[in-house]
Amino acid sequence: MSKLLREHAEQQYAEELEEIKKQDDHSIPPNWHMSPWAVVTYLMGGKLNNGFEVSAKYIGDRRLMEIAVATLTTDRALLLYGLPGTAKSWVAEHLAAAVSGNSTLMIQGTAGTGEEAIRYGWNYAKLLAEGPSLGAIVPTPLMKAMESGKIARVEELTRISADVQDTLITILSEKTLPVPELGTEIQATRGFNLIATANNRDKGVNELSSALKRRFNTVVLPLPDSMSEEVAIVKQRVESLGKVLELPAQLPALEEIRRIVTIFRELRAGVTIDGKTKLKSPSGTLSTAEAISVVNSGMALSGYFGDGSLNAEDVASGLVGAIIKDPVQDTVVWKEYLETVIKSRDGWKDIYRACRDRI
Q: Which of 129, 203, 322, 350 has the fewest C-beta atoms under 10 angstroms from its C-beta?
């Protein structure tokens, strides 16, 4: 097993990517490592003609992935948009890995991201010694992607200030990166495109200008439609992370995962699963990603400080931490939910007691 805490997608799933390429007899766009059909197969999973089983990276609407992959074959960039925790970054990474064989050409958007992080920087020692030259330029991941014809990624695009965002307009419309200091430009090689992610619940969001929006095709990634779909996502990711982290705990029973997902879905929707009781919703998003985090945190507690079997005591602190973001408002919501729903639910006395004691 690798000593790396987190391998890149193209490393972790190298065997699957190789097997899919062997079976891929569809048309492959210039500079792509596999066909659009193969990319969607890699994302959605399934059995190949030779019997090889490909794991699902995205559990949801296949059509959304087809639209996303088709976008990357055009002159439009792809914007993955939605609530936090809806697998936007996960999908972007796997798309880049399958299309380009390299998911590392990534720019992390923050409030402090400047133009030089998107366009290029300078090696100031060379700049002072030799003056402005191509050799003195420090290429960004975006510039590298343009030169090599690969997929670049920009995470949390709306966290970047509006004037810096607009640096992308010329790159996406003209497929060139001007270098005015040298009176030249970097032209994109065929195969180049951009995948950006953005969420609509981030405080301090910088809205995209209409000019920049026109350069993107937006695919909204929704929260899982059904209970079974969300349970399957949590189970798959917990198993995967458990192996990587080598947690000394048993994989949680499906029923324990189902209880956590039920709590999250009910509080998100503001109504119980049976539709009989209306609920107040907390301020947090209670995404699938947070449900995965709650289970993993519980497994760590169980493995290192318990008997290795996940129980209500192990998940209670993670649940409370995920739900109570605003100590005043969310505590009231959580207490009401505990007393009106969890307390009276058959077989849930243990989680009621464990959570009540953590408030």
A: 203
- List the beta bridge partners of residue 262: none
Structure tokens at 239: 């198993």
Specify whether the CB–CB gap between 82 and 222 falls below 8 A: yes
- 116-164, pLDDT tens digit by residue? 999 999 999 998 888 888 889 999 999 999 999 999 999 999 999 999 9
Range of the domain at 67: 9-220
Each residue's pLDDT tens digit, 2-56:
677 889 999 999 999 999 999 999 999 999 999 999 999 999 999 999 999 999 9
Do both 231 and 203 map to the same domain? Answer: no
Same domain, 140 and 240: no
| Residue 42, domain member (yes or no) | yes
Whether residues 63 and 102 fall in one domain: yes
Q: Is residue 1 part of a domain?
A: no
- Per the structure, the count of domains in the chain is 2
d(CA 54, CA 19): 9
Q: Where are the alpha helices (DSSP H) in 101-217?
A: 115-118, 124-130, 141-148, 162-165, 167-174, 210-213
Q: Are residues 19 and 134 in the same domain?
A: yes
